[in-house]
Write a structure and sequence with these properties.
By secondary structure, the protein is an alpha/beta fold. The protein has nine helices and 19 strands. The longest helix has 18 residues. Its cofactor is Ca(2+).
Length: 416
């Protein structure tokens, strides 16, 4: 029993064990579950339980107590599963302690951090442009939308973590992670040009808070936000990119279905590969899904413009190495992810690392390219990202060759 409980905890799943360690479960414990089954059976269940998220034929989710959970399990006509918990991963940096622990308290001396310079392929760049007309939905810990370098960029600000399904005009970030990601995509350097620049500063931000202040959240909230972004893309007639710097080692059916749904609506989905490298087959979900672009993290070797995959960056399957086809558990694109400077939740700036930091580089690049090619579909945009990608020092050699590598995917895609 203990071994099973520990396994479930490592996967981020809420555990419930009757009589574990000689104790009865807390009758007031809230357990979030998904309910799926025949239409008539689900309709009956909805009469007894208030749905948090209703995903149609993919079922619905509810929060129940221990007694209600046991009653649900007795219904053999319904599939009852506990909802997965998804968490941010922090990269331990030997020179900074735990990444993201503190923020600097002055304006940055470098207005275009190295990741921006690298993806623009211009070490002397002083400002950026692009992304006009494109919406980037950032699903994260929220965003400090009034940051010096982000003010005026937010078009939507919504919280998916509260008791009600969606809280409008609320996306407060008390963690920092989401604000950091947003800055890499679309920081505009402020009106006086003293702040940092993101890749596509003219894009519009849809700030969707799906993780709490500790950086964890439930997969149904994330799935709900993905579907909402897709529906908003259709409602507003917008070209939308969903950027998710989050993940789990376990595949979640709710998120997988939501990603497929968004992709079917013409939305490009970009997600972090995870920070569980360097072993093979360590890629996280939802990045590992075929309809999501999984992003690996690059580091700048000795600041000399040579790039390689960071040791912490998760890897895909070596069995698909060189097949030039994106399948499940494949890395697709690489981008800067080590020591990335960006905006922070307290109005300052911070330098942190992870595939979480690589992901917004690709999301921003996609926004910039799509803005310049507004007639393209999301599949054409995805193909262009692959076409622009080059391999850098992936297997010991240094160069700019094309390929398909299990560690870097098609490689580093850049503006030029």
């Amino acid at each position: 029993m203990l071994g099973a409980a520990l396994l479930a905890l490592t996967m981020g799943v809420t555990t419930f064990s009757t009589g574990a360690f000689g104790q009865e479960p807390d009758p007031n414990q809230k357990i979030r579950v998904s309910i799926k089954g025949p239409k008539s059976e689900m309709a009956s269940a909805k009469k007894n339980y208030k749905a948090r998220w209703d995903f149609g034929t993919d079922g619905f989710t509810v929060e129940v107590n221990a007694k209600q959970y046991q009653a649900l399990l007795k219904n053999k006509n319904l599939q009852i599963e506990k909802v997965h918990e998804v968490k941010l991963e922090r990269v331990q940096d030997s020179t900074k302690g735990k990444s993201g622990a503190t923020a600097i308290t002055s304006l940055p001396s470098d207005r275009t951090p190295w990741g921006i310079e690298a993806i623009y392929n211009d070490p002397s760049i002083t400002s950026t442009s692009g992304g006009k007309g494109i919406k980037v939905a950032i699903l994260d810990t929220g965003v400090y939308i009034n940051h010096y370098d982000l003010v005026g960029s937010a078009e939507q600000c919504k919280d998916f973590t509260q008791a009600t399904s969606i809280v409008n005009n609320s996306c407060t970030d008390r963690n920092g992670h989401g604000t950091h990601v947003a800055g890499t995509v679309l920081a505009h350097g402020a009106s006086d040009g003293l702040g940092v620049y993101g890749i596509a500063p003219e894009a519009k931000l849809w700030a969707y808070k799906v993780l709490n202040d500790n950086g964890s959240g439930y997969s149904d909230d994330i799935a709900g936000a993905i579907r909402h972004a897709a529906d908003e893309a259709v409602r507003t007639g917008s070209k939308v990119i969903i950027s998710m710097s989050l993940g789990s080692s376990a595949k979640d059916s709710l998120i997988a279905s939501a990603v497929d749904y968004a992709y079917s609506k013409g939305v490009l989905v970009v997600a972090a590969a995870g920070n569980s490298g360097p072993g093979v087959n360590t890629i996280n979900y939802p990045g590992a899904l075929p309809n999501a672009i999984a992003v690996a993290a690059l580091e700048n070797v000795q600041q000399n413009g040579t790039y390689r995959v960071a040791d912490f960056s998760s890897r895909g399957s070596s069995a698909t190495d060189g097949d030039y086809v994106i399948q499940e558990r494949d890395i697709e694109i690489s981008a800067p992810g080590r020591d990335i400077l960006s905006t922070w939740y307290d109005g300052n700036y911070n330098t942190i690392s992870g595939t979480s930091m690589a992901t917004p580089h690709v999301s921003g690049l996609a926004a910039k390219i799509w803005s310049s090619n507004p007639t393209w579909t999301h599949t054409q945009l995805r193909a262009e990202l692959q076409r622009r990608a080059k391999l850098y020092d992936i297997k010991g050699g240094i160069g700019a060759t094309t390929g398909d590598d299990y560690a870097s995917g098609f490689g580093f895609a850049r503006v030029k």
